[in-house]
Q: What sequence folds into this?
C-alpha cells in the first residue's frame, strides 16, 4: 500500500457508498476489488490511465448504440464535440 493510501474499515466503506450514485458505487467497488487483487504490485501505466482505457471504450460503444449510431447525438450526450467523439472511436477501433 502506498504511503498516502488509506484503507477504510469494511463497514465504513459500505456507509460511504450509500450516498453515491449507482455508477459511482460500481466504480468504487470495482476499483477496491482491483486494488485488493493486485496488492502492492505496481500498475505499469498508472491506475488512472488503466481505468480510463477500460471504461472509455464500453462507454462510447453503449452511448453510440443507444443513439442508433448517431454520432452527433452521442457526442452531445457525452458532452464532447463530434470530432472528438470520432477521434476516440477511432482510437478504440469502433469506427
A:
Amino acid at each position: 500500500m502506498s504511503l498516502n493510501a488509506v484503507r477504510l474499515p469494511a463497514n465504513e466503506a459500505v456507509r460511504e457508498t450509500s450516498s453515491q450514485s449507482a455508477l459511482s458505487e460500481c466504480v468504487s467497488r470495482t476499483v477496491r476489488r482491483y486494488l485488493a487483487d493486485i496488492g502492492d504490485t505496481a500498475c505499469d501505466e498508472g491506475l488512472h490511465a488503466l481505468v480510463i482505457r477500460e471504461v472509455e471504450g464500453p462507454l462510447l460503444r453503449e452511448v453510440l448504440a443507444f443513439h442508433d449510431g448517431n454520432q452527433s447525438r452521442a457526442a452531445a450526450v457525452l458532452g464532447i464535440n463530434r470530432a472528438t467523439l470520432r477521434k476516440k472511436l477511432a482510437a478504440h477501433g469502433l469506427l
